[in-house]
Amino acid sequence: MNPAADQSPSLPVIDYSKLVEIKASKDPGSSLTSQNERQKLYAALRDVGFVYLQNHAISPTAQQTLFHHAKRFFAQPESEKAKIETGESKAFHGWFSPQRTSGDSSKSDQKEAFDIGDDNDPTRPNQWPSNWPDLRTDMTSFFEQCHEIHLELLSALAEQVGLNADFFLPYVQAKDHFFRVLHYPETTGASFRNRFRASPHTDYGTLTLLFNDSHGGLQVRNKAGKFVDAPPLPGAAIVNVGDLLSRWFNDTLKSTEHRVVEPTAFDKSDPDIPDVIPARYSIAWFGHPNRDALIEPITSCCTSDNPRKYEPVYAGKHVVERLAKLHKEGKNTESWTDSMARDRNQDVVKEVKTTA
Question: At 2, is the pLDDT very low, low, confident or very high (cuts 50, 70, 90)?
Fold first, then answer.
């Protein structure tokens, strides 16, 4: 038994069905309910940066199917997974092992991943295992469903700062997103003395949709600077703000640091219980702007109390720099500044007109 799954929600809970209710009903009461839930979403992402998203449109069956695929994929011999190993020349699509890319098992994250992008983008083709068509069909379907949820969430957020509901659509319609299934192998408590399952980091893009198995370990940094548990909430996805969306909102929305550590629920008081931490799996869909989108603070988010904080940056370059650093070091950097880019002049644009 894993008690982590039974803990009370530690993050605000948003009902996705209420967010989209305004489109499905002509009832004025439904409109008010939807507007209230949209305001609640904005407030939660402003104050916390993370929410549980209930009643989203992705079925439990679709989620369990992907978890089944993940377990089968990662159970393959390393030699088989290495046939589709990722890298910058492959658009970071394929099998990713932090230990292999960094060459340092003493500090790299204790995880492995299988990553894809939009399967209809011929300029950044995905790598797929041979003779496994269901994996491709199911992952690409899940990718598209997450994209639609992403659009609805962005629409709700745009309205809260006085923008048209479809303001972000032109900036994300290329579907330059990043989709991964993750495996955190079985390990021991001692392994966490020097390593994480996922080092403290912020996400790179717009919004992340995360689907966890029943094992805990995810922690989110709160306002006091302390990491607190965000246990799985049955049926709910976890949504969090990425750096580029926070940049768009001039830090009004919070891109919050998070990490994956040893679950707190396992009883170590009995010396007869082996010090074994079971494997953990998750599904993470990372929303990103179009790679050629120029991201700069929205005018309505820049005020005398919150003056403009960022220079414009091209989304694609920003994401590539973040991924390159992850692969080189085998773990994410705890925080990111533009000065970390390999070529600062390529990453940040000095003079352009404002976005909105």
Answer: very low
